[in-house]
Structure formats: structure tokens, C-alpha cells
Design brief:
Elements lengths: L9 H9 L3 E6 L5 H16 L3 E6 L16 E3 L9 E5 L9 H6 L5 E6 L10 E4 L6 H12 L5 H14 L10 H13 L3 H9 L4 H13 L1 E2 L5 E6 L1 H7 L9 H6 L6 E8 L2 E10 L6 H6 L4 E2 L3 E7 L2 H24 L1
Helix pairs in contact: 2-4, 2-5, 4-5, 5-6
Organism: Akkermansia muciniphila (strain ATCC BAA-835 / DSM 22959 / JCM 33894 / BCRC 81048 / CCUG 64013 / CIP 107961 / Muc)
InterPro entries: DDH_dom, DHH_sf, DHHA1_dom, Oligoribo/pAp-PDE_c-di-AMP_PDE
GO molecular function, one term: nucleic acid binding
């Protein structure tokens, strides 16, 4: 298994933690399994070390992750200032993605740390532990806990498993290496109930989510060559269905799963932001959606990325579609040259 000693970034992070007494742990808005799992695992580890800890998220814990033991300790961002010495951002590539209210609540913090695995991370913070070769921030923390010598409690164990499982697409994506499977095996040896966690993560969809999936199946568009699939979710459709923000998580996977598709784009209107939220996915290593998203100010991973673009949703779809078509045509030219 990959050894934590490969990562010199652990030493300054450990020094920071050992030399301070109070911490806020926070991940990006619209948190996914890696964001919540990493927040919870690190927060619990800090508590074990006798630290004062505030675990928080601007959007709170999504309902599909409410089953995780310990998530009741992750609070929505409070209106008042959070009185801690250090703020640690986890699974978050840009400071602004923590949310405006969170940045206001943490405005008095003197020291920031940045723990992440996104290659497009903006490297903010006083101490950075950004390891883009790891499959999830939960994996970064797994090795970091070994470095610290902190025992992994059942709450931390399950949180790390959720983080790694969700960010690898249930161990399906390109970053699922032998080391990742060995990491998962170690967590299972510690007592992870794989069947129960997988059931909760992947086999318990609320009815409103099924209605959103129906909306996507009816509304998705495929290019004539079958290489690109797109779908737009409007505020009108969400109001008609009665969905919450977390209910849209994973709709992009329906588009990506179409046979023959190389690229998928899910576009969503949001009430709180005039920009269109876009999720991008690639099924071919020859096209990086992180690079594609970066053209418009976004980022992420080569196979999964996101961006927000201002404009009417159909106009934005056509803009993204043009960029995606250019990438598909580039790959086709390379194959025939």
C-alpha cells in the first residue's frame, strides 16, 4: 500500500494542528460524499487529539448522507462569527466555493489550511496539503491519520469509506488503483459494513429523485454522432417536482451512461445564483473535462469537473456544446491521422 512518507506536505500540516487548539473544518457548498466524509473524519480526529472543533457547511448535510454516524455534528454555517484559531478547508479547490456566508463567519480566522485532491486547486491557505494523485480527499486523510498516529474510530472509518467510495464512483473510475482497493480493504478489516453503506448510498433514492431522473430521461439530448449527451434542468421543473438541491446529485450519471457517449453535460438553473451550474463528465481519457471547464473559469478532475456560466440556460448549453464538439473532433482527427 502507498505509504504516507511519500507526502512531505503532511509535516507542516501536522505541526499546525499540534500547535493550535481550536479549528473549523469546512468543505465546499453542495457537498458530496467526499466533502461530508472528509469533514467528519478530520473533525473526529481533531476531537480525539483534544482540540475544540466546529464542523460546518454552508448547505448543511444532504439528505442522502444523513445516515452516516456523526453527521449530526456538522452544522449549517452560523450567522455569527466562528471563534476558532484555524480553519481547514477540505475537498475544496477554491476559497470562494466555501460560500459567502461561511467566509463571512470565518473572517476572523488567522490561519487557513487547505486539504484537497483536485488538480485544479488554487493552492490557497497558509498550509497546503493538495495531493492530486489521490482518488479522494478521504484518501489523503487516511494516509495523514497514519502519519499522525491517530486511531481510526468507527465514525472516522465509515466517513473515509463513504468519501472514497463516492469519489471513485463506487470504485469504477480511472483513479481506482490497487492502492485504493487496499485502502478500502483496510477500512473493511476495521469493520465497515459494506452492504449497509452501499445500500444507503446507492439503493435508497427518494421518490422526488426518481421524478427528476424521469425528467432527465425525457429531456436529455444526444448529438447526431452519439458522442455528447446534455440535459437542462430549469427552476420551473424543480418547482413542479418539489426537489431540493441535493436531489439533483448524480443526474449527470444518467447522461454519461448512454452507450457510445464520450462527454456529458448537466446544466441547472438555481434560484440563489444567476449563473447556470454545469457538471461535466468524460468517459475517455483523451478528453479532460477539467481542462474544458477551466476555459470558462471552472475546474475539477479529468473525468469529472464543473463550472458556472452566466446566461440563459439554452444559450449556455450551446456554448458548452460547441466546446465539447471541438474536443470530440480533435480526438477523432488524432485517431485518423
Amino acid at each position: 500500500m502507498e505509504d504516507w512518507k511519500h507526502y512531505p506536505q503532511f509535516a507542516p500540516l501536522a505541526d499546525l494542528i499540534r500547535s493550535h487548539g481550536s479549528f473549523a473544518v469546512i468543505a465546499h457548498v453542495h457537498p458530496d460524499g467526499d466533502a461530508i466524509g472528509s469533514t467528519l473524519a478530520l473533525g473526529e480526529a481533531l476531537k480525539q487529539m483534544g482540540k475544540k472543533v466546529v464542523m460546518m457547511n454552508e448547505d448543511g448535510v444532504p439528505s442522502n448522507l444523513a445516515f452516516m454516524p456523526g453527521v449530526e455534528n456538522i452544522i449549517p454555517t452560523p450567522d455569527e462569527p466562528v471563534d476558532v484559531e484555524v480553519a481547514i478547508s477540505v475537498d475544496n479547490g477554491a476559497l470562494k466555493r466555501l460560500g459567502e456566508r461561511s467566509l463571512e463567519a470565518l473572517a476572523g480566522v488567522k490561519v487557513w489550511a487547505n486539504i484537497d485532491h483536485h488538480r485544479t486547486n488554487e493552492l490557497f491557505g497558509d498550509v497546503q496539503c493538495v495531493l492530486p494523485d489521490e482518488c479522494a480527499t478521504g484518501a489523503v486523510l487516511y494516509y495523514f491519520f497514519k502519519y499522525l498516529g491517530v486511531p481510526v474510530t468507527p465514525v472516522m472509518r465509515d466517513a473515509l469509506y463513504v468519501a472514497v467510495s463516492t469519489d471513485t464512483g463506487s470504485f469504477q473510475y480511472q483513479m481506482t488503483t490497487a492502492a485504493v482497493m487496499e485502502l478500502a480493504a483496510d477500512l473493511i478489516r476495521m469493520g465497515v459494513d459494506v452492504q449497509d453503506i452501499n445500500r444507503q448510498l446507492y439503493q435508497e433514492k427518494p421518490w422526488v429523485k426518481m421524478q427528476l431522473m424521469r425528467e432527465a430521461l425525457n429531456g436529455m439530448k444526444l448529438t447526431p454522432d452519439g458522442r455528447i449527451c446534455t440535459f437542462c434542468l430549469t427552476n420551473e421543473a424543480k418547482a413542479r417536482i418539489g426537489s431540493r438541491p441535493e436531489d439533483t446529485e448524480g443526474l449527470i450519471d444518467l447522461l454519461r451512461s448512454v452507450q457510445g457517449v464520450w462527454l456529458a453535460a448537466y446544466l441547472e438553473e438555481t434560484e440563489e445564483d444567476p449563473r447556470i451550474r454545469i457538471s461535466l463528465r468524460s468517459k475517455t481519457p483523451e478528453i479532460s473535462v477539467a481542462e474544458l471547464a477551466s476555459r470558462f473559469g471552472g475546474g475539477g478532475h479529468s473525468m469529472a469537473a464543473g463550472v458556472r456560466i452566466r446566461g440563459p440556460i439554452e444559450e449556455v448549453r450551446l456554448t458548452i456544446l460547441k466546446a465539447m464538439r471541438e474536443e470530440v473532433e480533435r480526438v477523432i482527427r488524432q485517431k485518423i491521422s
